[in-house]
Amino acid sequence: MQMDNELLALFPLTAAAPGGQIHIAGQRLADLAGEWGTPLYVYDAATVRRQIETLQQALAASYPGETEITYAAKAYFSLGFARKLAEMGTGVDVVSLGEMNVARKAGFTPGSIHLHGNNKSAAELAAALDATVHAIVVDSLDELAFLEDLATRAGRKARIWLRITPGVTADTHTYRQTGHAATKFGLPIHNGQAAEAIRRARRSAWLTLTGLHTHIGSQISQTAPYAEAIHRMYALARQVDFCPIEFSPGGGWFVRYTPDDPIIPISDWTDTIGAAVQQECRQSGWPLPKVIVEPGRWVAAQAGVALYRVGACKPAGDGATWVAVDGGLADNLRPALYQAKYAAVLAERADEPATENVHIVGKYCESGDKLIEGVYLPPAKRGDLLAIPVAGAYQLSMASNYNLGGRPAALWLEKERVEMLQPREEVIETRWWVGD
């Protein structure tokens, strides 16, 4: 018997399951877990490269102008992972001084860095000015004035974009919607703030406005909201007679997490973006801007697999079985925060019939610490190795030390080579928690 092909397709590009033993990049997951311990996250190098190359090809086919891929660091960022991306030639979208410093240390050039965020500190803005990053993405009229004052006192011009809130509601979880009129992000079009920001920026002697940006949300599977956002932003630009030389529709395109999720090609997204920008430029009589996209999840998610060791197993009140693992919401907050759905496989028994309905839960002292409710597995027992695919984004980046547990290690898997992306965290050695 073989592992189900639908399940295997969720795993990284190099995944295989000979004899029911899951391998990635030629490495048996059970061997990696034995050597490095669990919970453990592994990232497949070939999958990250494939995702970037696929998106580059789709952009080139969809848009005749210049394009750039800028990775959204919030999806997952460590010094090791950042170095890999810098070597691949992507840009990077950062939202904090920490992410900016890691990007610089990893080898990203200042011209490939964009600083985002709805409440940037003076230290973050000053660091961006000092480093001459490609763009500071201004989020409000307040921030515009604040940055202009900092730039004036520093005697250094700031290259900026404006984050525009187009008033578009995407069909995704409420917490992942960022383009509607009530969001905390950006300069709304509907009340005149976006137009006023463009006027003020263009009048400033210390601000150089080159582009417009929006981000309408994440895990979006429909193209129409992107087209509508682009049309509204260009209508705004025509209203104030501002021709952007750079334009970013953000990121947020859909990623499959379970076999029930639809397969939607990235070309659907790039075709929509490319057609909408070209249509607006023809209508305005303007040259095509450079289009910068900001994928995070789409680059990293499928490349990552989370590995856990099964502990206690006991009957649940609804007739299923509780299967507890040695991780949980401290390394994957998404099920508790977004009700995110996942698949799971026993990494050393992937070819056995999945006959038992189980709820996979974590070890943390919260009733909401449930990784997967209602998934079929072979009868699980203490010591089994559980693999959850599509674990590369918004898991380690949101990890915590809840119950004073340490964050997991993460590995980079090349064929016949393993590199550490981040070490396992030992909280007992963190002095400010335990004292001298």
Number of helices in the DSSP assignment? 13
- The CATH superfamily of the largest domain is identified as Alanine racemase
Question: How does the major sheet shape up?
Answer: 9 strands, mixed
Number of strands: 20
Radius of gyration: 23 Å
Report the CATH architecture of the largest domain.
Answer: Alpha-Beta Barrel
N-C termini distance:
56 Å
Poorly predicted segments: none
How many separate domains make up the residues? 2
- Helical residues, percent: 25-40%
Instruction: Let me know the average pLDDT.
Output: 94
List the helices and strands and how they pair.
Layout: H1 5-8, E1 23-24, E2 27-28, H2 29-36, E3 40-44, H3 45-62, E4 67-72, H4 79-88, E5 91-94, H5 97-106, E6 113-115, H6 122-131, E7 135-138, H7 141-154, E8 158-165, E9 187-188, H8 193-203, E10 207-213, H9 224-239, E11 246-250, H10 266-284, E12 290-293, H11 297-300, E13 304-315, E14 321-325, H12 334-338, E15 345-346, E16 356-361, E17 370-377, E18 385-389, E19 409-414, E20 417-422, H13 431-434
Parallel strand pairs: 3-19, 4-5, 4-12, 5-6, 6-7, 7-8, 8-9, 8-10, 10-11, 11-12, 14-16
Antiparallel strand pairs: 1-2, 3-13, 13-14, 13-18, 15-18, 16-17, 19-20
Task: Explain this structure.
The structure is a single chain. The protein is an alpha/beta fold. The chain has 2 domains: 165 residues, Lyase, Ornithine Decarboxylase, Chain A, domain 1; 254 residues, Alanine racemase (TIM Barrel, Alpha-Beta Barrel). It contains 13 helices and 20 strands. Strands 3, 13, 14, 15, 16, 17, 18, 19 and 20 form a 9-stranded mixed sheet that branches. The protein has an 8-stranded parallel β-barrel with strand order 4-5-6-7-8-10-11-12, surrounded by 6 helices. The protein has a two-stranded antiparallel sheet with strand order 1-2. Strand 4, helix 4 and strand 5 form a beta-alpha-beta unit. Helix 3 packs parallel to helix 10 and helix 6 packs across helix 7. The chain is elongated.
